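Notebook, bench 3.
Goal today: get a predicted structure for Small ribosomal subunit protein uS19 from Candidatus Muproteobacteria bacterium RBG_16_60_9 so we can plan the truncation constructs. The sequence was checked against the plasmid map this morning, with no discrepancies at the termini. Length recorded as 98 residues. Pasting the sequence as submitted so the record is complete.
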Amino acid sequence: MPRSIRKGPFVDNHLAKKVEKAQSERSKKPIKTWSRRSTITPDFVGLTIAVHNGRQHVPVIISENMVGHKLGEFAATRIFKGHSADRKATTETTDAKK
């Protein structure tokens, strides 16, 4: 058995406390966290956790399929807006039409 299995999943203590409190109060309010490294456990299912992506908190509704994954997997940190158009190629095509 690998050592990582014996150690169990990692969850930050402050996040675990917030999850326990939200479950006991049956709160629907999102739980804010900066802990992207925490593993999603079955306790998290049904809760909304706002995960920080470096700029803002992204709300993530936890489902059963997410158990075992890290919170950071569901809050993208980089947004690719596409490559800019090649200006030289566009001017050549307009010159050729003249």
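The mean pLDDT is 90. Residues 91 and 97 are 10 Å apart (CA to CA).
Flagging this for group meeting.
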